[in-house]
Amino acid sequence: MNKKLLWIIIGLVVVIIVMVVLKKAGALGKEEGIKVSSEKTSKKTIIETVTASGKIYPEIEVKVSPDISGEIVELNVQEGDSVRKGQVLSTLDQAQATYNRQKKLVDDKVISKAEFEQAETALHTAQANYNATLQSIRSNQASVQSAKANLTKANKDLGRTTIVAPMNGVISLLSVKKGERVAGNSFNIGTEMMRVADMSGMEIRVDVGENDVPKVHLGDSALVEVDAYNNRKFKGIVTQIASSSKGAATQLAATNDVTNYEVRVRLLPDSYKDLIDPHKPKSFPFRPGMNASADIQTRRHENVLSVPINAVTTREKGSDKVVNSEKSSFDKKNDASSDDQSAKASTSGLEEVVYVLQPDSKVKKVVVKTDIQDINYIEIINGLKEGEEVITGPYSTVSKTLKDGTKVKVVPKEQLFEKK
């Protein structure tokens, strides 16, 4: 009896030891399948957006430069002042212009008149020299006309020494000080003295890349974020799209430089009217040069079948082979649009796929066709039905590991990376 009991005890000890070894080796109690997260397909509204950054400027801003050169003897405005059209902004030194005017009055006009009278007397007293005298009269008449033209120009130059506001607005930039000398616009571009802007209409000028600019159209809506107003979005509308790239006139840029096009988005006043103090009608919430970004809404599809972007990956056609193990096409969703990716996949021997969870906890590879996407979801045109459960993560598992028939275990997202 004791011998039998001894063998039972020895057997139990052996079993316990084997179980401990198997447990440590992971063969006992091992979870079946790869841990994954999933989500059911559903219908949503997807808005495709193009995001770009830039700065805020007045829609209308006029540069003010003098017509003639001179010294600034009066400067009647400061940056930020409101001005009316025709208001005197600055006066240049008039000494030289006044001297030229007086010289034309005294020299040209008086001398020309005396010579003309002398020619008239000679006409009556010397018929024999008729032809020569007539020529002299005509010459002096031309001198009189030339003197009048010079006088007109001198008067005009005198008037140009006064710089006036070209429109109602605000002095948005003042580049000169009293006593400085400025160059006129007579032959070259003159000195920019100041700028007058209509601050009631503001816009954001953003740079859009060449891959995205074809999607943008005049009239597209936009949501604008201004760095100075955190967590606040303003409404806007696309008013202008550049036909030429920025720096197109300079053809010396490297071929790998990013090509951008300027897009202008008008800020709708109704979206920021609460920021305007009714007691200070001349105060404006935005200042030229403020940093901002715009989400331009290019396309909108309502009630369409969609899945999380991370659920879609690429494989070689007809297989589970991963071509680029470092980066799938959907890891580059910020570099190209979904329709661009679909086109590339169809022409490069790749196919877009999702992995659908089956009742036996295995996954089935399903080829899909996609359309537009927003920041989280992508539209599925065909390949899936509403309510099917697709694998959404981890990203590395979806993009590299999963194959048709892989065993998986669906867990909450927070448990995906927990250690055993």
As a whole number of angstroms, the C-alpha radius of gyration is 40 Å
CATH topology of the largest domain: conserved putative lor/sdh protein from methanococcus maripaludis s2 fold
Helix content: 10-25%
Termini separation comes to: 44 Å
Unreliable stretches: 126-130, 325-336
Q: Helices and strands, in N-to-C order?
A: HEEEEEHHEEEEEEEEEHEEEEEHE
Mind summarizing the main beta sheet? 6 strands, antiparallel, barrel
What's the shape? elongated
Gross CATH architecture of the largest domain: Beta Barrel
CATH class of the largest domain: Mainly Beta
Strand portion: 35-45%
Index terms:
alpha+beta; OB fold (Dihydrolipoamide Acetyltransferase, E2P); conserved putative lor/sdh protein from methanococcus maripaludis s2 fold; Elongation Factor Tu (Ef-tu), domain 3; 420 residues
Give structural notes.
The protein has 420 residues and is of the alpha+beta class. It has four domains: 34-45 and 303-415, conserved putative lor/sdh protein from methanococcus maripaludis s2 fold (Beta Barrel), CATH 2.40.420; 51-57 and 201-248 and 255-300, Elongation Factor Tu (Ef-tu), domain 3 (Beta Barrel), CATH 2.40.30.170; 67-93 and 161-192, RNA polymerase II/Efflux pump adaptor protein, barrel-sandwich hybrid domain (OB fold (Dihydrolipoamide Acetyltransferase, E2P), Beta Barrel); 95-153. Helices cover 24% and strands 35% of the residues. The protein contains five helices and 20 strands. It has helices at residues 2-25, 95-125, 130-159, 338-347, 395-401, and strands spanning 34-40, 42-64, 70-75, 82-83, 88-92, 162-164, 169-174, 181-182, 194-209, 221-226, 233-241, 260-267, 291-308, 313-316, 350-357, 363-367, 369-373, 377-382, 389-393, 408-410. A six-stranded antiparallel β-barrel has the order 2-9-12-11-10-13. Strands 6-5-3-8 form a four-stranded antiparallel sheet, with no helix packed on it. Strand 15 (350-357) and strand 16 form a beta hairpin. The chain is elongated. The two termini are 44 Å apart.
